[in-house]
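Help!! Second protein's tokens look totally different from the first
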Amino acid sequence: MMNADSDASPPRLFRGARVRMSVLGRERHPKYGDRQGVIVGRGSPSSWRVKFDERTTVQAIHRDYLELVAQPAAASLQVAQRRSSMGGASNP
């Protein structure tokens, strides 16, 4: 029997979102630790390109290895405004 929690999908990731490695991501890639970064684009249908803080290169990371970081209200509002000004278009 499935409960309501198992039907819930994780929050959707999007370009400009602040993310960190999930528990699964830290298990699979311990060298990344608890780093945070910003999604800068799509790597493939199942991965995102992330620019981690204090790193110069962008890394493609599987979506299951990332989780959203809570942002201050002002930062979330700015991201939402940028997304709406782009007409909701995603970056392929």
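Here's the second one for comparison:
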Amino acid sequence: MGAPALLRRPADALLPVASDRVAPEQHPTPLGQARIGSHDTNRKQPDPAPPPAWLSVATPVRARDGDGAGAWAATGESRAKRRPREPALSRAAGDLRLGVVLVRRSGCGGGDGLSHHLETQRRLMDTAVTTDLGWLPHFCLAGYLLFLLGIGLWGFRKRQAGEEDYYLAGRGQGWLVSSLTIMATFFSSAAMLGAPGMVYKEGVVFALFALNVPLSGAAIYVLGNRIRKLGHTHGHVTPADLICSHYGSPVALRCLVALIGFLYAVPYVVIQIQAGGLISSQLFGGEHAFEIGACLLSLVTMLYIMIGGMRSVAWTDALQGTLLMGGMLLAGAAAVAALGGPSAFFAKVAELPRTSLSVPGTTGSFTPEKLFTLCIFGALGSMIQPAQWMRFYAAKSAKALRRSAVIFALGLTACFLFGVMLVGLGGQVLYPVAKPNTNGAFEYQVQIDGQTVAVPEAGLAKRLAKGGKPLPHPDVGAGSRDFDQIMVVVLKRHLPELLGPAGLLLGTLIIIAIMAAAMSTADSNLHAMSAVLTRDIYGGILRPGAPEKNRLWVGRGVIAAATMLSLGMVFVSRSSESFDPVGMIMPMSLLAIAFSSQLLPVTFDVLFLKRGSRRGAIAGIVAGMLVVLMFSPLLAIVTGSDSAAVGLFARLKQIADIGFCGVVVNVSLFALLSTAKRR
């Protein structure tokens, strides 16, 4: 684990800035005003001599003063250019230590203030040097990945012939494995990285998104058991099997259900690979750390799915689910400890900008209406996507699945409230996205047309509406996408403060656990995509009479092809400014859920109402998907402009979740055509 990100700054930049909120009389004498050998405050002092080389060392953007509340001004080079080498950092710490001694011995006026600043920088440098774990992260990650491959081989040895075993583990999963694999599939890098990043960016408003977790648990309890019962009775493997069994089995409906599964799985797999690369770059550093991490995650995940099928996926999910829950809770504890305990934490959170503590959030994106629809349709949409649907089929009994629903709701709600929320809000205090200006008002750094400008809080929403992008604290990242890195930054910097030297090792393991969260969701969706495309398209339409053995090998080929496609999209997104299908992690996950939500009307009709028609189901799904497409960033990617989306849906998009808008159109058309047929 590398040293904290550093910036080169001149000697006078060692002073605390206004955001420290320290009274003027508490500030030591500035370096440029230090009086040497005289106490005459009216006598003009000569210009100070240039500082020695050792005083212009790179200093951390974020430092802690005596009570842990200090913030240092952020100026200088880009993040990519300001990371010094460890040997230079060690020498700088030694130079600062010598400087402290020389200043104290000089007896100069103002020496106490200068000594205080040098001592602070020296402690920070020493801390940075001692947090280098060398090759330990490499060994931990290698051991972890080998263990996952071992589970894949174990699943291969336990396999039985047939698609039901490969895709559903023989429908024999107990409550513990079922609960953990459902959690791990749901709690992806979108939750481990994207959700804390959204709280860090938007404020407390996005913490209310935790309401979707108990709603998801209720969906497992009610919808999941009905799906499981029908699947066991009729031998269903994919969502299309159940839906087409109810409405008949036309090619159009089967293709549409398979397409929704594909449109859900691809964005989710893409963001998991992206998250693996981000974590690798944070953990190991280096010019090609992102590419190596993304490729390694993709390769290992692809191999153990192809080898062991659902049994390997479920057991690796159980391990990864345990790790990610522990990591989330420890990260929250580290954020609280870094600010001096619960009382100090909430006192400092209360001093955040007004927009961070109110609805609709910092950027004005989350109105009450949008948050309400997002929670409901985010919960339902994420529970009827193909990977979760197949986990309902795989549960051994109704009792096992109900118990899994309760564990899911309680466990993940705790992780969201005591992990996601605390890390995001604590990150705003530790690494502020806004700082007071000379008038005492908060201002934000916003990227507009490639330029970074300071925007006051009152005018932020207007600037963002015109295409501006808010930026995180430089110590978190240099780009508008880097809000997602706050979780890793908190773990790397502050878990050692909570647990001492053991925190270094534990922090490394938990960061690897975040990579596990990405792998656990990627494997589930790749596995589900294989089942959907093989059973619904290849076996259901292209070659209905194909032997089961052939279908299994085609399924393995689909896993390999989908992995390579997703990896390619990540690399193209990073290298091209004009084509960016990835964006931030959380928006991509919400887009995937919006697509899967279009199965809600037909699912409720199949499980409860039983009054819809095949024609209504097809028309409703098509209409809902078109609405989601018009709302989504995909429109701008396809057309090269988002003017159509702005002209048609701008206002509606601000007040409602795009999945909800699609479902409204979907249900309306579904009900209209189904009623017309009955008449």
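Reply: Different proteins will give different token patterns, so don't panic. The radius of gyration is 27 Å.
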